[in-house]
Amino acid sequence: MGKTQKWAVAALAAVAMGGAFTAIAADNNAVANHGHGAAYGSAAVVAGKTYKLADMLTYAIEDEYAARAEYAAIMAKFGEQRPFSNIMRAEQTHIARLTPLFAAHGVALPKDNAAQHVLVPATLAEAFKIGVDAEVKNIAMYEAFLRAELPADVRLVFEALKNASKNHLAAFENGVKRGTGAGSGAGFGAGNGNGAGAGQGGAGRGRQR
Core-most of 64, 155, 157, 203, by most CB within 10 Å? Predict the structure, then answer.
């Protein structure tokens, strides 16, 4: 192979590696945004920046749309189970509380496009971590909005949803601490009893119920 050909091969390899690194970075960014993608919901909120009421309402309901879609997708893959099932229902309540604020303040209600931003995790353990990340960002978003001057009705709802998300965060953090799999007792994993799996008691095979 001549010198010119060697340089051409090296250049093509560099381009290919650059593309791979770009793809990896994009995938990592999607995970960091708990599957919601950039510029959607809490992922669009920048610390220290001020927002118009219309933007705050839009990002808030987008984030609730995204959480509902994320937890629904997780259960579609791993089966319906707590805390995802009850938290998904809570997200529906959050959406219902936010929705009237749009008409009350003359803001267009955005369509629910959250399914386009969902990233389904490979394992249930990752699903709990996604839940933690989602609720942390949701809380930070509401805390940022609550530092602004807000109409009384908007402040009331934002405060309530922030506090609810703190409860959701605690539930997901408990799931991360426990681990997943068929643990000791219903609700810790995918089955009942001290069965096989990486549950609270660790990997192994115990008594079946």
Answer: 64
The answer to whether 98 and 157 have CB atoms below 8 angstroms apart is yes
What is the CA 5 to chain-centroid distance, rounded?
Answer: 48
* 190 token code pair: 């995918």
Pair 124, 180: CB distance under 8 Å: yes
User: Are 62 and 145 in contact, with CB atoms under 8 Å apart?
Assistant: no
**Two structure tokens written together for 128:** 């709990």
Instruction: Find out whether 71 and 91 touch, Cβ atoms under 8 Å.
Output: yes
Burial class (CB in 10 A: 0-12, 13-18, 19+), 19: exposed
| Alpha-carbon separation of residue 61 from 18, 82, 87, 154, 181 (angstroms) | 36, 23, 15, 12, 32
What's the angle, vertex CA 85, arms to CA 83 and CA 86, rounded to 5?
70
pTM: 0.66
Locate 10 and state its tokens.
């090296």
